[in-house]
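Hi Y.,

Following your request, here is the sequence exactly as I used it, all 129 residues.
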Amino acid sequence: MSFQTPDLRDRQSAAAAAKKALLEKFRTAAQDPSLAEKEAARRAIVEARDKRNAEREAARKAREAELAAEAARQAEIAQKARKEQEELERLIAAEKAEAEERLLAEQKAARDARYAARKAAKKVRRRGF
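Below is the corresponding structure, written out as tokens. Let me know if you'd prefer a different format.
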């Protein structure tokens, strides 16, 4: 025999009673009308939160679309500026090439004139004029 004050049967019956009391507490809580009100309030809060999140997401997408459109405009402006710069460089290169051709033509004309003058002087010397 044991010297414990409550014996096994007393402890078992106390545990069973505690379980029954706890089960009864949850049963009455499940039937409580204020619980339904609390659940409805929680659902309203969740729905409002979801609505705010959806609005934030829509605003974020709109902002991203604006940024993408602005980036596209900036890219278009940059492309236009590049084309204008290339056109300007092409015109400058063409003017430079034309100036170089003119210089070469002038140098050739001067060289031809010197050559013709030498030939004429040589002719004069040979004939004795």
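The mean pLDDT is 92.

Thanks again,
Q.
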